[in-house]
Amino acid sequence: MQWETLFLRSQFDLMTSNQKYLSPQTSYRNFLSLLLLYPHLKAQGCFVFKPDFKRKKVSFPIADYFNEGKSLSEDSKLRFDTCQLLWQQMKSEAEELQEELNKNLFDNLIEFLGKSHLEFQKKSTNWNYQIKSREIPTAAIVLGVNVTDHDLTFKGLTEMLKDTVTPYVVSLQAKECPDVKHLLQKLASQLMGCVDIESTEEEYVQSSQRKMHYSMAFLSTWYRSITKKTGSESVNKKVTSSQWKESPPIVIILEDIESFSTKVLQDFIIISSQHLHELPIVLVFGIATSPIIIHRLLPQAVSSLCIELLQSLSCKEHLAKLLDKLLLTTRFPFKLNEKALQVLTNIFLYHDFSVQNFIKGLQLAVLEHFYSQPLSILCCDLPEAKRRIYSLSEDQCESIRRLPSFMRYVEKQIPEKQVALLTHERFLKEETLRFLEELHIYHENFFLVLRCFHAFVSSLPKYPLGRQIRELYCACLEKNIWESQEYEPILQLLRMLAKDELIAVLQKCVEVFKSSPGKQLGSMAEKLQEFLAQFQSLDESNEEENGSGSQQKGFQKTDLYHLQKSLLEMKELRSSNKKQTKFEVHRDRVVDLIDNLVRKFLSPPDTQTLYEVVYFTGAHMLREHLNAAPRIALHTALNNPYHYLKNQALKSEDDSIPNVAPDICIAYKLHLECSRLINLVDWSEAFATVVTAAEETDPNSTASEEIKEIIHARFIRAVSELELLGFIKPTKQKTDHVARLTWGGC
C-alpha cells in the first residue's frame, strides 16, 4: 500500500498547489474526501492533524479607507472628521423623528394592553368575562408595504414594552415557525430568556433544555411559578409601571403575518385560547397589506380573537417629515441637487417605499461628497467655516478658482477685481467668506418662501406643481419656477381663491414667517397680518350689493371646470372695464406679493457662487450603487473581464478573445457568435482553439491527449456555469445542442 500512500500525498499536494486561492478549510475537506476514497489507508498509519486556522485580525481605521485614492490629500483627515460629525447629527435627528412618529402608535398599544387584561388582573368572576375569556386580545398594526422598515419599528416596540409594560415580550417570524412545534419552541425559549436563570427553579431550566416538552401547559405552570415571586426584583426590575407588577401580560409579536402558514396560525390560536385563563396572552400582528388578510388567513380561528386595529404613519408622510428635518433646513449645510434627490425619491417610490434605505442612500451621498470634493471642509457650520477659510492652503485656493460657479462670477467682474480674485489669496478668502454668508442667507429665505408658496399651490385643483413639498422643491432646484408652463395658470387660479380659502392659506404663511430669524423676511409676517385684518374687516353684505353674480361665484369652493369658467367670465368682466371690488383688489395684491417673493428668493442654487461646496451633484454615482443593473454588470464582467480584474493580459483593443481569459468568459464570448441553437461539438472545438492558440504541441503525443482532456473538462465546467447563470438551457430538439436564453435566444 505504499504506492497508494504516495498517491494520496501527491493528490493532496496537487490540490493545495493548484488551488492557491482556496482556504485551508477547503483543502482540508478535499483531503478528507481522498480518505473516503481510500479508507484502508487509515490502518497504514496515515493520520490527519487539522492545523490551527486562527488568523490575526488586522483592523484598519475607517479613515484609512477614506484616504485612499483620489481623496489622499493634506486635509483628508479633516474632511473625514467633518463628514462623520455631520452624519452623526443627521442620523440622530432621523432617529428622534422615528421615535416621535412611533410615540402615538406605541401609546395606543399600551392603552389597549391596559384594557385587555383588566379583568384578568382583578381575577374577575363576571359572566361577561367568562364568555370573553377565550378571546385573545389582538392588536393588528398596519405598517405598510415598506417591509424593510418593519424591523426597526418592532425593535423599538419590543424595547418600549419591556421597559414600561412587561418583560415577557416575544417576537416571532414566519421563517422560524414552519409548524406549531417549532413555534412553541421559539416562544418558550424567548420567554425563558426574559428572566434570569438564577430566579427560576432548576427543574424548569432542565425542562427548557428538552424541547420536546414545550407546550402551553408547561408555559402555564412556568408563568404561575414566576408570578408568585412578586417580591423578586430579577423579574420585574425593568417594568416601571405599578399596574403590571402583579400579572404582566405575555406579548407575542408576529412580525410578518402574511408569511405565516394558515394551519400553523389557526392551531396556535386555538391552543392559546384554551389556556387564556392561565396565561394573559396578547397577540400583535404586523400587517403589510390590509387588515382583511386576517380573515383570509384565519377563516375559522378569527372568532377567537378580539381585534383592535392600529394604523402607523404612512411611509410617504414619514419621508416628507424626514426631508423637512434633514434637507429643507439650514441646520445641516449638506444639500442634494435636483438629479441626486430625484434618484433617491424614485428608488423610494418605485422600488421599496423604505425610509431606512432612503437614509442609507443619503448617507452614501454625504460620504461621496466629502470624499470627492476637496472643498467639502467648508461644508460645516458657518462659524466653523469662517475659521477654516483663513487656514486654506494655496492648492485649496486654486480649487476655489476652478469651480464653475466662481469662474462665472469672475467673468462678470471688472478687470481690476478679476486680477485680485485670481492672484491675491487674502482677497480671495475674504470674498469666499462673503459667498458662504450669502449662501447661508439664501437658504434661509429659500426655505421660508418655498413653504409659503407650497401652502398656496397645494390648495389648487389637480396640484399643478405637486401635492408634496418635495415635488415643488425639485422643480425649484431644476430651473426658475416662474419660467415653467404651470406658473402663469397657477397665478390665475390664485386670483380666483375664495375668501375663506385665502384667509386659511395666509394664516399658514404667517406662522411660517414668524419662525424666521432673518431680517429680509422678518417683516413679511406683519404684511400678511395686515392683509388678514383687511379681509376680516370686509363687510360681506356690502360686497354682495356692490358685486356681480360672477363675484359671488368667486367666493365659493368650486372644481377646476367652474374655476376656468369663472376665469373667462372675469376676463370678460375686466374687458368691460367694470370696477373691481375691495376683496378682488386685496386678493390681487396678495398674489402679486407672492409672485415677487417667488421671483426674488426661489432661484435655483446653481445661480449662487460656491454652491458646489455644499451641494452633492453625483446623481450617476447614486444610480450605479443603489439602482443596480445586474444584467449589464454580468454582461460586462463576462464580455470584458479587464473592466473588473484590471489585468493587462486581459486587455484587448480589438474584439478578439485572449486565451488567458477565464474559461467562462471565453465560452460566453463564443456563445454570443452562435444562433438560437448551439452545437456543443463546434462550441467545444472553438473553445479548445482559443485556449491553445499560443501553445505549440504535438497533436500525436501523450501529453497532447492529457491536455485535451483537461481542456474538455474546463469547457464542461464553463458550460455548466453559464447554464447556472441562465444564459443557456438543454433542448429536446437536438440532443447535442443547447438553446440560448438571452440576447436573441428563444
Entry keywords:
3-stranded antiparallel sheet, 6% strand, Rossmann fold, mainly alpha, Arc Repressor Mutant, subunit A, 746 residues
Description:
Its main location: nucleus. Residues 389-620 form the Origin recognition complex subunit 3 insertion domain. Residues 631-743 form the Origin recognition complex subunit 3 winged helix C-terminal domain. This protein has 746 residues and is mainly α. It has three domains: 99-193 and 247-313, 3-Layer(aba) Sandwich (Rossmann fold), CATH 3.40.50; 318-539 and 583-616, no CATH class; 630-740, Arc Repressor Mutant, subunit A, CATH 1.10.10. It contains 35 helices and ten strands. The protein has a five-stranded parallel sheet with strand order 2-3-4-1-5, sandwiched between helices. A hairpin with a 6-residue loop joins β9 (728-730) and β10 (737-740). The longest helix has 41 residues, at 76-116. It is globular.
